Amino acid sequence: MLKVFEDFDRRPDLLARFDELLPVYSISCVFADVMYRTGVMSSAIKAPFKAKAVGQAITVQLSKGDLVDPLKALEMGQPGDMIVVDAGGDTETSVCGGLMGGLAQNRGIRGMIVDGAGRDIDELEDLGWPIWTRAITVRGTHTMFSGRKEELSINVPISCGGVVVNPGDFIVADTIGVVVVPLAKADEVLTLAKEQADREEATRQWVKKGKTVEDLLAEFGRI
Asked: What is the pLDDT of residue 145?
């Protein structure tokens, strides 16, 4: 159903804990591991340049076969949000580009995940505003000419990269991939992710000391 515009409860307390973990290596892998590899989007959805971001999902459902730019999401987005778009997997029509990225950045929106295509990645890279998409294409939508902004739904459950994303779920995304952390499980998952990140850093320091595989297994039980 189109033209459903809802909101969700933001959790700045949880977002702050995600932010604390953002600097660790391979943050998407850490969260994927502690969630037993669930919530991992298709490997086809990638960042076109080096990128890393976390935030709560403001979800967008587009009409398959009749895509529009999700400008309404920019109007509704708040600082700390990540826009997550179900564009039906369309790889030939971009729903996100440089000007949209600049506008989103002005609102404190941290990035966009699109089950579809984007463009203007040179501008987006210079802005430091990341996107994750199935494809990059020069073809854009017709929104700039038609003024159509509301033929979509905001903050409804969607499917993106093979994963169900609900409004307010947390997104963990880096150059490696994208992971969805359900809001209801975020507190528990954050605790596990912090423990996992600490273990990996301890192992990393052992590796730097020249330890062997046998040493690591004896100390940590895993690599």
From this structure: 60
